[in-house]
Amino acid sequence: MSTDSEETPGSETPEEADRQTVIARIDSGLDGVRADDTRRRLALVGAVVVGLGLVAVHWVGLFVAGGLVGLTRRTLGRALLAGAGFGVLVLAVFFVVTPLVTPWNLLALAPLSYVTIVLAVVGPVWGALVRGAL
Fold it and tell me: Model pTM?
């Protein structure tokens, strides 16, 4: 018994085709940025500035910032490294902005401090995985 809702293998709905077209357009636009060293560096600086602003507002900004930084890189591996680098930058900025909390004071707050450190580094790396989707 066959119903009208069954699809043949390989067929796409119009929504799926539109989604793939949008992703292809985004990827081709980013390829132009990734190919030119100057544009890629400017995009990276912009992503870092926007990312730090987002992180200052909410911790979910770590994931978004990692995605933004990762999208400027040519390969997934470099995107993950850029995400980790951004996470380390966030920790450094945290210690500069809050001078009363030294790294040793933060570690004295263990195990809560471990969550802070791990989330600061893993969040952007996780966000940078978006590079693998494009």
Answer: 0.77
